[in-house]
Amino acid sequence: MALLSKIAAELADRPAPESAAECLELTETLAAAIDLQEAALAGLVCVVDAGREAQRWGYASTQAWLRHRLGMRDARAKERLTLARQRHRLGQVVQRWSTGDLSFGYAATIADAVARLDDPDCAAAERILLDMVDQDFSAAKLAVSGRRIRDVIAERDGTDQPPDDAARGYQHSWIQATRCLDGGRYINGWLNAEDAAIWDGTLGPLTKPAGTDDHRDLPERTAAALTTVLSGGHRATRVTVICDLDTLTGGTTPARLPDGTPIPAAQARRIALNAGVSPLLLGRGNLPLYLGKKVRFATGPQRQVLQALYPTCAVQGCQVPGTLCEVDHVHGWALGSSTDIDQLALTCSWHNRYKHTHPDRLTITKHHDGRHLYRLHHPKPHQPTTLNRPPPRPQAA
């Protein structure tokens, strides 16, 4: 690995040749070498994922580790994780990929196509898609064919019986949306009991017939209810714009959205003309932001302040939006932390639970602007995780 890193560093530092033809040839050679490195990377990620090592380091998932630690975009991290998880079922793909006979793009496309197929269908799909590769189909056409294979299998099997995933735990709830040729989508999935309760509690009241003239069946009303929730139509639309009083009275200081997006001062004033304006007071005022130990749960005004302070989860590197996070007592309610605004932060649900169960694996600091930053640190070293290691052979007497 050290030698490979030195070679890559030297290549990156070396200027490209002036000849375009030479650059074209070198690009093809380097791309083929990168494909082989990706094959090795998939094997390493497979072991990390199977051993749940990323979770020991404080990441919600292997995909979150790839995003934060390796700097991958979400789509790229998902692509590599899918490859890592499917490689043990794609023997022909892995063999051809590891010998340079198959590109990373083709391997990733095939892995994505078989991700939700059972083993017999996976083997059949692998043969079909590799035959298409041999016929010089592009990766884009291969992806279309892979989606069509999934659609045909879904139509063959129907959706009345739950998949095998129903026997798995909390983290394996899943929903898959497959785009159809007419622009629509097939939606298939499974929710565990906890997620199903959230589904029922949110969509249930919206699936009731609208009246005696509502002749839609339950699946049609459920689809309409889901669309209503996704579009925000089940509640009043609210946009929070954060600005100084000087901005509202004619100043030029830009306002901002909770995620940090700047808003020109003139536009902020136009928004204020058509919306309610409420102050966010960090201290005494007309909003009860300091509640001490009498109240455990944060109020609506407190959450509004926290969303202004925390565009994302307070854990360094976590990109879950603050609007989707939970209110966390920085030093723990049970340990004496009060429900005051300067003792609260926003964390995603996974990191909220992680902080409670592993308080020794993070450090909390406070910025000058009042925000708390949670930094994860490495877990204690332990014996390396070994997977599928055969038992030792008995020694001869």
Which strand order spans the largest sheet, edge to edge or round the barrel? 1-2
- DSSP, total strands: 8
Task: Work out the radius of gyration.
Answer: 26 Å
Uncertain stretches of 5 or more adjacent residues: 165-170, 279-294, 385-390
Domain DUF222: 28-308
InterPro entries: DUF222, HNH_nuc
Pfam families: DUF222
Region (Disordered): 374-397
Outline the structure in words.
InterPro entries: DUF222 (IPR003870), HNH_nuc (IPR003615). With 397 residues, the protein is mainly alpha-helical. Helices cover 45% and strands 9% of the residues. The longest helix is centred in the first third of the chain and has 31 residues, at 20-50. The model is unreliable at 165-170, 279-294 and 385-390 (pLDDT under 50). Among the domains are: 23-158, no CATH class; 238-277, no CATH class; 300-376, no CATH class. The strands form four sheets. It has a two-stranded antiparallel ribbon. Strands 3-4 form a two-stranded antiparallel ribbon. A two-stranded antiparallel ribbon has the order 5-6.
Give the arrangement of secondary structure elements:
Elements: H1 2-13, H2 20-50, H3 53-56, H4 62-68, H5 74-86, H6 91-98, H7 104-114, H8 119-134, H9 139-157, E1 174-179, E2 185-190, H10 193-203, H11 218-231, H12 245-248, E3 255-256, E4 262-263, H13 265-273, H14 300-309, E5 326-329, E6 344-347, H15 349-357, E7 362-366, E8 372-376
Antiparallel strand pairs: 1-2, 3-4, 5-6, 7-8
Helix pairs in contact: 2-5, 4-5, 5-7, 7-8, 7-9, 8-9
